[in-house]
Amino acid sequence: MPALSIHVMISASVQKAAQLPFFIPIQNRKGNNGNMTSTALMNTYGERAATLVKGQGVWLWDEKGKKYLDALSGIAVCGLGHSHPAVTKAITEQSHTLTHCSNFFTIPNQEILAEKLCHLTGMTNVFFGNSGAEANEAAIKMARLFGHQQGIKLPTVLVMENAFHGRTLATLSASGGRRVQAGFEPLVTGFARAPFGDIESLQTIADNNRNICAIFVEPIQGEGGIRVASTEYLKQLRKFCDQNNWLLMLDEVQTGNGRTGKYFCFQHSDIIPDVVTTSKGLGNGFPIGACLAAGKAAKLMQPGNHGSTFGGNPLACAAALATISVIESQGLLDRASVIGGRLIAGLKEGLSTTPHVLDIRGIGCMIGIELNQPCKSLFAAAIEKGLLINITADSVIRLLPPFIMTDEETDMLIAILVPLIINFESD
């Protein structure tokens, strides 16, 4: 879309909004770097990198009409890209009929979505919330219920070093980084920690902690630096949990909904977990989370055990159903694999002689480029070149592109990013 059209659209929006009470024009809400800021917002994200006002497909535009190639997807959220017509249509149509009702009543969209997710995954039933953290909270509660049923007075969930499960008190306690925990002590108890990917350590931990009732692990650690659990490791976890009568719980908040080329990442390993959580890409930008159960976990939640006022509302479920329909009808699982393969091949070729690149890894549209030093400044450098990326674990460039990216757009991503990495010196 030409920049002029964007400016016209923004101008019309501003004029319309100016008629509303308390409207403050964009130009009067600038921060030090020219981006919108407001003291009315809690400063939980710091200075914003840009003021984005429109998205279409794999592209975003700021208030000045500058165009950005989105290789982040809102942090693994918009797998179908921005403003996908099928999702927009589903939300619009549903909003004209029913946006919300209590879970005391049957919600048809909710039941259809639950049945669809179970069919896609081999799981048995689903609890719907509004976010990944909510889904993970439900999983932790299920683990404790299971532990108590086994006669364990203080049930303990085994989590991994460098894990990230959310920012609620329980989920940040389960996470592995002091960065998210510091200042929020006392942390929630009931967690033990193991090295990620190290199956040998589990027996020692099990021998020394008889309160463990579940393992909770990300198939790919996103915030931990795109660290990929091997298929063999996940199979071994399944076997170990069966041997010890533990729940195997997988956090697929980032990896689910097609991102790795399967609907869920665990499907690469040909296993069925007892619990799997997801959110992010489930509604392609509309808030929704899900906690799925199977096997010995399927009957844990009973009336009164858990709930969510907004969980599984008709609007969110309509968005999720439309998202799944597009993924299936357009073959986007296969497309995610193709994009990922093209990206990794192009990056490895372009960076093969770059000494400060330690590794390029990932599955499907979830890729990490690890450097030998912190590289947070590459985030701003990429924005300057019209590319949206993310830096995680201080030194890993994280790429989470939409599954609809064309070969040309994929090559454009490589062409912009490779020189930035080659010329990078230090933060």
**CATH homologous superfamily annotation of one domain:** Type I PLP-dependent aspartate aminotransferase-like (Major domain)
Count up the helices. 13
Secondary-structure element order, N to C: HEEEHHHEHEHHEHEEEHEEEHHEEHEEEH
Largest sheet: 7 strands, mixed
- Span of the ends, CA to CA: 34 Å
Strand order of the largest sheet: 4-12-11-10-7-5-6
Identify the overall geometry.
globular
CATH architecture of one domain: 3-Layer(aba) Sandwich
Could you tell me the CATH topology label of one domain: Aspartate Aminotransferase, domain 2
Runs in which pLDDT lies below 50 for 5 or more consecutive residues are 1-11, 13-28
Strand tally: 17
- Considering DSSP H and I runs of 4 or more, what fraction of the residues is helical? 25-40%
Which CATH class of one domain is shown? Answer: Alpha Beta
Strand content: 15-25%
Describe this structure in words.
With 427 residues, the chain is an alpha/beta fold. The protein has a domain at 87-329: 3-Layer(aba) Sandwich (Aspartate Aminotransferase, domain 2), CATH 3.40.640. Helices cover 36% and strands 17% of the residues. It has 13 helices and 17 strands. The protein has helices at 3-17, 73-76, 85-95, 108-121, 132-149, 169-174, 178-181, 200-208, 231-244, 314-329, 332-350, 377-384, 407-422; strands at residues 52-56, 59-62, 67-70, 125-129, 156-160, 191-194, 212-217, 220-221, 227-228, 247-251, 275-278, 289-293, 357-363, 366-371, 387-388, 390-392, 396-399. A 7-stranded mixed beta sheet has the order 4-12-11-10-7-5-6, with helices on both faces. Strand 16 and strand 17 form a beta hairpin. Helix 3 packs antiparallel against helix 10 and helix 4 (108-121) runs parallel beside helix 10. The two termini are 34 Å apart.
